[in-house]
Amino acid sequence: MSEEKKFRYGFFLGCVAPNRYPMIETSIRAVFDHLGAEILELEGASCCPAPGVFRAFHIPTWLVIAARNLTIAEELGVDVITGCNGCYGTLRDAWYELQHEPEMKKMVNEHLAKVGRKFKGSIEPKHVVQALYLDMGIDYLKGFVKHKFKDLKVAVHYGCHIVKPSDKRPWDGEYECPTFLDEIVEITGAKSIDYKDKFMCCGAGGAVRTAVKEVSADFSREKLTNIRDAGADIIIDCCPFCHLQLDLGQMEANSIYKDMIGEPFKIPVIYLTQLLGLSFGIDPNLLGLIKNHDLKNVSPFIPVEPFLAKVKEELT
């Protein structure tokens, strides 16, 4: 491949990845660079803002802040990608609504004019998965696979905002039982296993995690029980907030519901681009999979070493 990049995107980081799971950010950067994509920084971007918080309280504020973030990408002339379902939900929903509601768009631009900005709607907000699956395509991704896993059973977690609301998503009817994430996972040779209530929420969204920790942990407990019962080696997700809930949430479920779950949960949680990167032959250090410190109480909370040991055994 020539040095000229085939794809260009503005990278919207969001809040959770850079602050709680920087390994997710670094894996996205490494994989997209490997795939021939140029990543541009959205300097001055703020919180998306979070759909379960801002939108629930004041839709005009939510729209104005989201539109301001999108204008940064419009100035660069590139579509936005984000690796967070919540950020995707906000940016794409706001983009869609402002395209179809001229009075809302007028209101938003009246506010943006105060800071010298104007929302045009000239770029499209996309999820990292959307860029991989729809822009690049499965066949393109397959061309980069160097190592295929032989006996890796994966529980795929989609999360909520990546597929719904259906009228604002690009998945061509795949909303109740989507397969696009499973298809990406399986080009690596891993097996995406079925499990009970696969499309259930992780328990974090809608400010449930913040407001009622026990309820949030109970969602996770049920989901993790179903995943463990299905015999999964790892969980694959595509959202840092889901990642937090499925990683740290295992520790919380182990504590709050220890009398219900029996053996404590210890299922490694791996972001999609970390799995892809290993299959592409990218150094695990560049994917944020190697822990080079002794800090306590920082992510990942569930050790990923058993997964790496299994991968090393399979690929040697």
Helix/strand class: alpha/beta
Numbering strands along the chain, what is their spatial order in the largest sheet? 2-1-3-4
> Tell me, what's the shape?
globular
CATH second-level architecture of the largest domain: 3-Layer(aba) Sandwich
Helix percentage range: 40-55%
- Can you tell me the CATH topology of the largest domain? Rossmann fold
Distance between the termini: 27 Å
Main beta sheet strand tally, sense and closure: 4 strands, parallel
Write down the Rg: 19 Å
* Strand content range: 5-15%
Number of domains: 2
| SS elements, strand count | 8
Give a quick summary of the entry.
The protein is an alpha/beta fold and 316 residues long. Helices cover 48% and strands 10% of the residues. A 4-stranded parallel sheet has the order 2-1-3-4, sandwiched between helices. It has a 4-stranded parallel sheet with strand order 6-5-7-8, sandwiched between helices.
